[in-house]
Design brief:
Helix content is about 95%, strand content about 0%. It is an all-alpha fold.
Length: about 80
């Protein structure tokens, strides 16, 4: 059962990394938008940063809570 808990926790870690990558992509878009003075790139960059941060936080929190709940049941 510990392997299942570790697997679920790793899914949360991967979800956090996906959110971090999405936010980093948003920073890149924002930087390009500022440099080239493109309003749509600026908007897309800000939106991607916010969505990436939310996605990473939510996925990490959900799967960490699920793993902690399973850990409590197992013990």
């Amino acid at each position: 059962m510990q392997a299942v808990v570790n697997f679920i926790n790793n899914i949360g870690n991967i979800g956090g990394l996906i959110g971090l990558g999405w936010a980093a992509w948003g920073v890149w878009d924002l930087a390009i938008g500022i440099r080239r003075e493109l309003d749509d790139k600026k908007d897309k960059g800000i939106q991607s940063m916010i969505l990436g941060a939310l996605l990473g936080t939510v996925l990490k929190a959900i799967f960490s809570a699920l793993a902690a709940g399973l850990q409590a049941i197992v013990v």
